[in-house]
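User: Can you fold this complex?
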Amino acid sequence: MLAAIGAASIESLYGELVPEAISTGAEKIQFPPPMAEPELLDHLRDLASRNTAVTQIVSFLGGGCYEHFIPAALDAIVGRSEFVTAYTPYQPEASQGTLQAFFEYQTLMARLYAMDVSNASLYDGASALGEAVLLALSVHPERRRVVVPFLLHPHYKAVLHTYLKHLGVEIFEIPECNGRTDYDRLRNAAEQEAAAVVVAQPNFFGILEESDEFERAARASDALLIAVADPLSLALVKPPGEYGADIAVGEGQPLGMRPYCGGETLGIFTCRAAYMRRMPGRVVGMTKDRNGKRGFVLTLQTREQHIRREKATSNICTNHAHNALRATVFLSLLGPQGLLRLARLCARNLALFRKKLGEISPSALVHSVPAFRETVIRLKRPARDVCEKMVERGFFAGVPLDIMGPSYEEFLLVSVTDRRKDEEIQSFVNALKDFI
Amino acid sequence: MSSNTIRFSKTHEWARRDGDQIVVGITNYAVDQLNREIVFVELPEVGKNVKQGETFGVIEAVKTASDLYAPMSGEIIESNMLVSDNPNLVAEDPEGAGWLIKIGPSDWSEWEQLLDSEEYQTYIQSEEHH
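Assistant: Here's the predicted assembly.
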């Protein structure tokens, strides 16, 4: 078998996948002796108590994973045994309930993003972007480049790099200019002959981009426009379908998922009808049975790997079923008005924070362009140190931006969602005083 | 049809010579393999260049999808819009109204590499015995 696939040994085959510390150091790992059940539970409780949940501290964390209001009815509904016990609930004979929920999920996403079609979800926003770029490359097989903004979430860039590194596809980055993408450089990117131009809306700094600039850049080179859009922001901001996006993806976590341990995630994937048959993942359709009654089934399966084999756009043959259900119930409970109120509350709280901070230190506010629920602030010392100090004062202060490069060491990304009370915002600003 | 004007590929496309162009479709045998129920056909844009043996589109039946391979190299002169709108036309009349594309061949010597009617019949009989 090794000879047939051209690998010298098992070790060399797995070499790239298994970190050296594990492959060669496994025998050195010292495991503790076995524990009895009560002892083990105490041990696990002890480990868990070392965590600080966002419910135990005032959190301004964000950067792609947010603490938003979740109606209590949501857990009651999605916790029903019919929903939690079914694994791979795709057989129409047995799963009309879940299939209908996915169909409604697709309808909700298509409307929210103003796109023609949605799949039944992927794993997270970052892999949804990876799949979107693969789709664009299948439309333009002769093109070997994608244009992305520097202000795309760094985790998304890393995932995209993993997706593309063995395909010989180059990621061409457009630098930042005052918190937004440098539009002059974006205009010149047309000559890159990219398969796709990616826009992040809002961008990683929480700032709203001029989406039309990206649309123009994509059209100028006949590239596909891929939008990475926050679903909650779409209650306020122009949806991707209205600025010419060919594919629109997003992270569904803000729609009823908690931020614990980096969040339960949900990959939203929508596109224009023209690309429907290249779309990755599962799709549920509505049909009629032989008695003419409405029913739901998986549809367009010829796209998928089990039929299309190596010619399939994607190897994803599943979805994040339970999280897609959470998003469906969340949006159904809030309705369009509720979603708009939630989004407005985020924008209002962010504005309050900026106003309060500006009163004591105008220079701490780095950008003056419209933002959604996040903003960058400038500190007088490394943001990572400040975050540690702020924990002692009862705050998760935000995400240190050194992850964007060493020149951002003293910048902090602060997220102010609907969950923050006015007095929490005031006391947070007071606590920040020493560092700005 | 005269064997001088129609040729076949081993991937079950037919090519009919029409002046300085060829008309391309899939054979009746191919349609049988797809259970005579075509739900979608993806055809190339006019002006695109194709190479002999390379894919120029996709044809989908209810439970399967197949690539379409160009019998000759050249430029796409026309794609059959009737088929894009009504894919099952391919199943109803594969070697007539259900044609797929017209190619302006760049190398007529490739014509000679294709199978004539008799050779194709022999070829599909040997395929069936597999």
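The CA atoms of residues 105 and 293 of chain A lie 21 Å apart. The longest strand of chain A covers residues 196-201.
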